[in-house]
Design the sequence.
């Protein structure tokens, strides 16, 4: 197995919470909802959803391999899910995790899905789009 494939693994956490979200016997924490919605939207587009652990041990929540378009290279989405990146430390760590992964996986753009924040953050290797979950869901439908 190549070193790239061994560093990308399936996200069992999201599958568990998506399964439990429809179960009326437990309560899902409000902060997990963006993650559940994001995973579900990606699942409608591709079955190939993983998480990535960088060489320094940091994890990117979701790596999705999109279906290929004839004549083009297969697109890869790198996604962190953070309900509220208001805390500066949390925001910096999310950006750091994604920027490390964009370099390792040679992807020019990463995405942070939040409840409300909408901005673009330039990083060394490309850009990180911070988008509210409603916009991410609409863009995945296209």
Sequence:
């Amino acid at each position: 197995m190549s070193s790239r494939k061994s560093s990308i693994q399936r996200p069992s956490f999201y599958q568990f919470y998506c399964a439990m979200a429809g179960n009326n016997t437990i309560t899902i924490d409000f902060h997990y909802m963006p993650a559940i919605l994001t995973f579900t939207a990606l699942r409608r587009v591709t079955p190939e959803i993983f998480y990535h652990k960088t060489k320094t041990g940091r994890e990117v929540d979701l790596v999705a391999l999109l279906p290929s378009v004839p004549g083009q290279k297969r697109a890869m989405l790198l996604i962190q899910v953070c309900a509220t990146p208001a805390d500066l430390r949390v925001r910096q760590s999310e950006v750091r995790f994604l920027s490390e992964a964009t370099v390792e996986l040679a992807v020019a753009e990463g995405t942070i899905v939040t409840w409300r924040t909408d901005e673009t953050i330039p990083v060394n290797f490309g850009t990180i789009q911070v988008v509210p979950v409603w916009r991410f869901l609409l863009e995945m439908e296209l």
Observations:
- The radius of gyration is 15 Å.
- Strands lie at 8-9, 49-53, 59-65, 76-81, 109-114, 119-122, 127-132.
- The helical segments are 3-7, 12-21, 33-45, 88-105, 133-141.
- Confidence is low (pLDDT under 50) at residues 1-6.
